[in-house]
Write a structure and sequence with these properties.
This protein is an alpha+beta fold. The protein has five helices and three strands; from the N terminus they run H-E-E-H-H-H-H-E. The protein is globular and about 45 Å long.
């Protein structure tokens, strides 16, 4: 699938580069990422408002999350990545979950059953990972943290 759900373990929420560096430094990174992707969503190609999404690798044996890089995503693709947060936004009337699901189906050329299975699996992984405290490694971006 081109677009997948990526849930951050609850014990690692807000342990990301964006919250550890200055706004000016984050803007420098995200604008470079947008430029690298020709100001288009890397997954669906949309030219709408972009988000800079951090790409993480999880070592489930040692409970280490490692920052691997960044990707430019449109709002819909980004919300699918963080569908748990999207559901919270929907409960507040701030987001249309049906629109997001339709986006997932279209991008991946799948039906609702595939979406539901993928979502269920993603939440199982999230629940297991959320049982542990995670060490965060920022790789080549560690030097930006003060």
């Amino acid at each position: 699938m081109k677009l997948e759900i990526e849930l951050v373990p609850s014990t690692a929420w807000y342990s990301n580069l964006r919250t550890k560096i200055s706004r000016q430094e984050w803007d420098r990174i995200r604008f470079k990422v947008y430029n690298d992707y020709n100001n288009c969503c890397a997954i669906c190609g949309a030219k709408s408002q972009l988000n800079c999404h951090e790409i993480w690798k999880y070592n489930d044996d040692n409970h280490i999350q490692t920052l691997k890089g960044f990707i430019a995503l449109c709002e819909d693709c980004h919300m699918i990545k963080h569908i748990g947060f999207a559901e919270i936004q929907e409960s507040k009337g701030l987001l249309d979950m049906h629109k997001l699901i339709d986006h997932f189906l279209k991008v991946n050329e799948v039906d609702i059953n595939i979406f539901e299975k993928h979502k269920s699996e993603a939440f199982k992984v999230w629940a297991e990972r959320s049982r542990y405290e995670w060490k965060t490694e920022f790789g080549g971006w560690k030097g930006l943290i003060k």
